[in-house]
Amino acid sequence: MRFSFRKMHGAGNDFILVDDRGGAFPCGDRRWIRALCERRTGIGSDGLILIQVSGKSDFRMRFFNPDGTEADLCGNGARCVARFAHEIGAAPADMSIETAAGNVRARVIGGKVMLDLPAPSGFSMNLELDVAGQKRLCHRVVLGVPHAVTEPPDWDTIDVARVGSALRRHPAFAPAGTNVDFVRIEPDGTVRIRTFERGVEAETLACGTGMAAAAVILGRLGRVHPPVELECAHGDRLSVNFVLTGAGAERVTLLGPAETVFDGAAEYAMPGSA
Question: Of residues 74, 80, 138, 232, which has the active-site annotation?
Answer without folding.
Answer: 74
